[in-house]
Amino acid sequence: MGMNSCKKKEEIIAQKAYEPTTMNKFFEDYILNKDIRVFQAKFEGRDTTAMYADYTFKLYKNTYYDGPFEARNSTDTFTGTWECNEDYSKLILNIKKNSALEWVSISWKFKSKTTTSMELIPWFNTDGDRYVKFVK
Fold first, then answer.
1. Rounded distance between C-alpha atoms, residue 92 and residue 64, angstroms
2. Is the pTM of this model over 0.90?
3. Backbone angles phi, psi at 42, to 5 degrees
4. 2-135 maps to which CATH number?
5. In Å, what is the CA distance from 44 to each residue of 48, 85, 93, 119, 120?
6. 3 state SS for the chain
């Protein structure tokens, strides 16, 4: 039964990946393909916002639930991928080959999403030692 339910869920997500819902449209209109910057960041309880002042991030659309992810600063561009679950409560970021951005390459839980910002906390741990707020 477990295998069938997983397959069924994957089929539903695959079908919905190309059908816009209200949440799909919100994510596409206000987050995807938009330059975003770190407004506030915390890692291991320390304020790390200044480390990312030079970075611009962008989530590109492959489907409504995944796509390429890019981080740029004044000298380099780093690429990776992003993935969301069906209800947009979870965001998985994977940035490659950049030790400064390893902390962002985890599963995040949306704390909030607005037309101008998104706040993320770790999916696995919400004790406040990691946090990031992106703004447009």
1. 14
2. no
3. -135, 135
4. 2.40.128.270
5. 9, 26, 18, 17, 15
6. CHHHHHHHHHHHHHHHCCCCCHHHHHHHHHCECCCEEEEEEEECCEECHHHHCCCEEEECCCECCEEEEEEECCCCEEEEEEEECCCCCEEEEEECCCHHHHHHCCEEEEEEECCCEEEEEECCCCCCCEEEEEEC
Residue 55 burial (CB count, 10 A): 20
What are 48-72's pLDDT values in tens digits? 899 889 999 999 999 989 999 999 9
**In the chain, what are the domain boundaries?**
2-135
Report the alpha-carbon distance of residue 119 to residue 39 in Å, rounded: 10
Give the pLDDT score at 82. 95
Segment 70-126, tens digit of pLDDT:
999 999 899 999 999 988 899 999 987 777 787 778 889 988 889 999 998 888 866
